[in-house]
Design brief:
Layout: H1 13-18, E1 36-40, H2 44-55, E2 60-64, H3 70-77, E3 81-85, H4 93-102, E4 111-115, H5 120-128, E5 133-136, H6 141-152
Parallel strand pairs: 1-2, 1-3, 3-4, 4-5
């Protein structure tokens, strides 16, 4: 985004407001009210779009484009929620999910599966692997945001990075 902090703490907040940025999503920023979300997705365009849209809602966002590094990055970053693509080069999203759920450091992190695969057997596999939710691409961002808020419960962030009801 080119902005180091959000409206609530940035010395260039007028620029941020003009660009429509409500929160930078940086950990420790006063505008981050909703917890840390990790996006594991191989499509850079989708990652950038989701990162921007989610951080504007007051969440801190961490991204990982590399399926092989996903477990390591997740263990290091300790996110409150993972949004996971299934069709990834290298390890599939299913393999990543199995790795995350079988590792004591990451097993309790909820996962929202985000994929173009929308067959009943895929939804069932996500359930078997203890996914917190499942959303088929393409989707409307508000549908993903609703799932994020439902999974994170009390850490719901409202518009402009304020705490939600």
């Amino acid at each position: 985004m080119g902005i180091s902090h959000c409206l609530s703490c940035c010395p260039i907040m007028k620029v941020a407001r003009m660009e429509g940025v409500s929160c930078c999503g940086e950990e420790g920023c006063p505008g981050v009210t909703g917890g840390k979300i990790m996006i594991i997705e191989d499509n850079q365009v989708i990652v950038e779009l989701l990162e921007r849209r989610i951080s504007r809602q007051g969440y801190s966002v961490v991204t990982c484009l590399d399926s092989e590094a996903a477990l390591r990055v997740c263990r290091e970053e300790k996110p409150d929620l993972v949004i996971l693509d299934i069709l990834m080069p290298g390890k599939s999203g299913w393999e990543i999910m199995e790795d995350l759920k079988s590792n004591p450091d990451t097993a309790s992190i909820p996962i929202i599966v985000s994929t173009v695969k929308n067959r009943p057997e895929d939804v069932e596999k996500a359930r078997e692997l203890q996914a917190a939710d499942y959303i088929a691409k393409p989707y409307v961002f508000s549908d993903l945001l609703e799932r994020i808020e439902r999974v994170l419960g009390g850490r719901k962030a409202g518009p402009e990075g304020t705490q939600g009801p």
